[in-house]
Design a protein that fits this description.
The chain has 203 residues and is mainly alpha-helical. It folds into 2 domains: 117 residues, no CATH class; 70 residues, no CATH class. It is 66% helix and 0% strand. The protein has 10 helices and no strands.
């Protein structure tokens, strides 16, 4: 069984959704394969799910975190400013329709909203989800450089000088945090390399 199907079945069953959710599973995989995406793709989702596999023990509600990973970039309009909101709403509505309790569905919604990265995450589930989403910052140099190229492709309509300025602001925002990663697992594994990567591309 491949990573995607195994993860989906574990999260879907674990969170208490009815049936197999196979139609939704296919809709989400199709969404991550949209042509405007270069980074926010099935590659990114797969990397997130693989990272979750090795760290799920630190989650308070692991099935909610895993389901939130599936939805966190489900809507991706490169010119949109409400991608996380629309993704979170889709997650909550789909889970409620599948018979998931309102508290669990809302928790997934709130977790997806945490990936806006506008605030330091709170609580074990938020911290784990955000650390997984940001794990690319601590990737090996070749993968990090590929990631930066993929982001540039997604924003190819933005003039180079403006993209470089805005991108530097975003990356410096992460560097200026006391810690990029909130969980002991990711902090130990990735913090130093993430800071090396960010220094290299912002200096």
């Amino acid at each position: 069984m491949d990573l995607f199907l195994a993860s989906w079945q574990r999260a879907w069953t674990g969170i208490g959704a009815a049936g197999e959710g196979s139609a939704l599973f296919e809709q989400l995989k199709t969404a991550y394969a949209e042509p405007q995406r270069h980074y926010h793709t099935l590659q990114h989702l797969g990397e997130c799910l693989a990272a979750f596999d090795g760290a799920q023990g630190s989650a308070e509600h692991p099935h909610a975190v895993e389901m939130a990973l599936w939805f966190h970039d489900a809507i991706y309009d490169v010119k949109g400013h409400d991608n996380e909101q629309r993704s979170a709403d889709w997650a909550r509505d789909a889970l409620l329709a599948a018979g998931v309790g309102s508290e669990s569905a809302q928790h997934v919604h709130d977790l997806v909203m945490a990936t806006r990265h506008t605030a330091v995450p709170q609580g074990r589930d938020e911290q784990l989800l955000v650390d997984i989403d940001l794990s690319i910052l601590g990737a090996e140099r070749t993968r990090f450089d590929e990631y930066e190229q993929q982001i540039r492709k997604e924003y190819s309509y933005v003039p180079g000088f403006l993209f470089r300025r805005k991108r530097k602001e975003i990356l410096l925002g992460f560097m200026e945090r006391p810690a990029i990663y909130s969980t002991p697992h990711f902090h130990a594994a990735l913090e130093a390399r993430a800071r090396d990567n960010l220094r290299r591309v912002t200096s």
